[in-house]
Design a protein that fits this description.
Distance between the termini of chain A: 99 Å
Order of helices and strands of chain A: HHHHHHHHHHHHHH
Shape of chain A: rod-shaped
Structural class of chain B: mainly alpha
Mean pLDDT of chain B: 78
Order of helices and strands of chain B: HHHHHHHHH
Strand content of chain B: under 5%
Number of helices of chain B: 9
Oligomer: heterodimer
């Protein structure tokens, strides 16, 4: 083992040690001794820098050099602007905010795709319906306008006529059991006739339809506020 | 003080500390390359060396009051060394696989390290061509160390020469190879 702490180590010997250190060729004791020497021996440090410069020749690199943005990075760190504080520059690709946005967009697009594939269209729904299902979900019967008008005018019709859904068939005694209910319905129908709104103005000089509320005149205090 | 080219290192550090625009680039011109090579030798990792170099300059400029004009170069190296040790300690806390600066690995390529480290086939062929111009003694050492991956002790044993002789031949061979590389490119 070489005594690396020896102060009489020549420049040539130091250069050889640095070369071996750079090439990862030193055994553990020599390695630690040389690293200890690097702490306070400027000659050893210079020798190591030179060994790295030389070793670059073996790998085709002219001179190992740091990135060209070093000065800007240092200046940003020493005298940060509000923008550099907000968006600190790092040596990774992109920015965390950018990657987060890209990730959110990707998740959103995947979710939309999955949702679109999972939700059946109207055509799919119709194709899935069996005749039995169609029977069960048959829409209510649409009565002709003449029947509706008749019911409005003559509410004394029997319940069987007033209930097209046919619940009276399930309760055949409903008319006898509920004569009062039938009478109440008649009274209510007479009391609140169904009126169709007309566009005729019933206030002279006003274009508003009769069933709309008239605007209240602006009070004096409101006018003052305006 | 207007930042002339004859400024000492300490003056440049003070100007950079004050935020003068031209001081930092001139300081970097003087020390960027040599400090980077030193850190590369200590850390054996290019990206780590860049990060530590940046931190070195920031720390040096911020603690300018500790610098002395006559020992500014040594002081900058000391700061760089301390920052490298700090980085190593952090790496011990959070273990990260650090690729060693192994010449054989660099020559035969690490795909994940990219083209700056891994040599292409053309460059490899070029290196072989250039090595043909070296004296046989230097070429043998380079061949055994770079391509056969032998340790220097093994190289010396194989060639039947002292270790220091093998190392001197290696050093001279690399120097000449470097010159040849620069002249051909």
């Amino acid at each position: 083992m070489t005594n690396l702490e020896h102060p009489s180590l020549t420049t040539s010997e130091l250069a050889h040690l640095a070369l071996r250190y750079a090439a990862n060729d030193l055994a553990a004791p020599d390695l630690h001794a040389f690293e200890a020497r690097l702490c306070d021996d400027q000659t050893a440090r210079e020798a190591l820098a030179e060994a790295i410069r030389l070793s670059a020749a073996a790998s085709g690199l002219v001179t190992p050099a740091p990135v060209s943005t070093l000065a800007r990075d240092i200046a940003d760190q020493l005298h940060p602007t509000w923008l550099s504080r907000l968006l600190p520059r790092k040596r990774y690709r992109g920015h965390p905010a950018l990657w987060a946005t890209a990730g959110a967009l990707a998740v959103g697009s995947v979710s939309l795709t999955v949702w679109a594939l999972a939700t059946p269209s109207d055509v799919d729904l119709v194709q899935q319906l069996t005749p039995d299902v169609v029977r069960r979900v048959r829409p209510p019967e649409i009565l002709p306008e003449s029947v509706v008008a008749t019911r409005r005018e003559n509410t004394d019709l029997p319940l069987s006529k007033l209930n097209p859904m046919g619940w009276h068939e399930k309760h055949p005694n409903a008319e006898q059991a509920l004569p009062m209910a039938s009478g109440r319905m008649t009274e209510r129908a007479n009391a609140t006739p169904i009126t169709k709104p007309t566009n005729k103005p019933d206030v002279a000089g006003s274009d508003l339809p009769s069933n709309e509320t008239q605007p209240t005149p602006m009070t004096e205090s409101a006018t003052k506020k305006l | 003080m207007n930042g002339s080219t004859t400024d000492t290192d300490a003056q440049l550090l003070r100007l950079a500390h004050a935020g003068q625009a031209g001081a930092l680039p001139r300081l970097l011109d003087r020390y960027e390359a040599v400090l980077f090579r030193y850190l590369l030798g200590v850390l054996k990792d290019r990206h780590a060396s860049e990060d530590v170099l940046q931190e070195t300059f920031v720390v040096a400029i911020r603690s300018i009051h500790q610098a002395q004009a006559e020992t500014c170069r040594n002081w900058l190296f000391t700061v760089a060394h301390q920052q490298a040790l700090l980085w190593k300690r952090k790496q011990k806390r959070v273990p990260v696989l650090v690729r060693e600066l192994n010449w054989t690995e660099r020559l035969y390529g690490n795909e994940d390290d990219g083209p700056t480290v891994a040599m292409s086939n053309d460059e490899n062929a070029k290196l072989h061509r250039l090595m043909a111009h070296l004296p046989k003694m230097q070429r043998d050492v380079l061949q055994l160390r770079l391509f056969d991956g032998l340790k220097f002790v093994e190289v010396a044993q194989r060639l039947g020469c002292p270790l220091n002789t093998a190392l001197s031949r290696m050093r001279d061979g690399l120097e000449r190879l470097r010159t040849l590389w620069e002249t051909t490119s």
